[in-house]
Amino acid sequence: MIDLYYWPTPNGHKITIFLEETGLPYRILPVNIGAGDQFKPDFLAIAPNNRMPAIVDHDPAVGGAPISVFESGAILLYLAEKTGQFIPKETRQRVAVLEWLFWQMGGLGPMAGQNHHFSAYAPEKIPYAINRYVNETNRLYGVLDRQVAKTGASLAGDYSIADMAAYPWIVPYERQGQKLEDFLHLKRWFETIRERPATIAAYAKGDTVNRPKEMSEADKKMLFGQTATSHRAV
To answer: What PANTHER family does the record tag this protein with (predicted)?
Structure first.
């Protein structure tokens, strides 16, 4: 059994997509990031960066005590290695998957996240910041578009954890100021993943989590602007 500490965000959806694809048994433990659940000491013990998702694998392949993993990319890699699925064994193919997984973790996710922040959540609209991140998101969409045009299918050959990592960050494309019609290869890739049964099931799981439709000012204060001394484990 996998305990998944989760909230229905792009990073959370990555993990439910993988778990639904593989059929690994799991249970969702909601981490309400607007209410500050991510700062609770018991969560900090498995996720020292105060960010979801995180997992606890109660049946690790190596046996022994449960293994906890934080950071969505590390979780995907751990689960892929545990199951032997969605990551190639051949070295060159494996390197390609890891390149695109790290590209998402270091580029697409952080840049789209800043896009969301300055476009939707920042208390003041700063045109330079909005343009900076909308344009960088656009550039990254272009990178993804060219890659799937070259492969003809997924980011790195067969469907893999790299695709699972990138897809949820494209879902809110309108919110990011992007048009899929400008990226026809990306659009084809996106629509193919969207129709996978596991993707549909994963997003349906997210809909079962009781989250507020609008982020309150208190939620924003909890999420943004934290410092090292804002919350301490007790």
So the answer is: DISULFIDE-BOND OXIDOREDUCTASE YFCG, GLUTATHIONE S-TRANSFERASE-RELATED
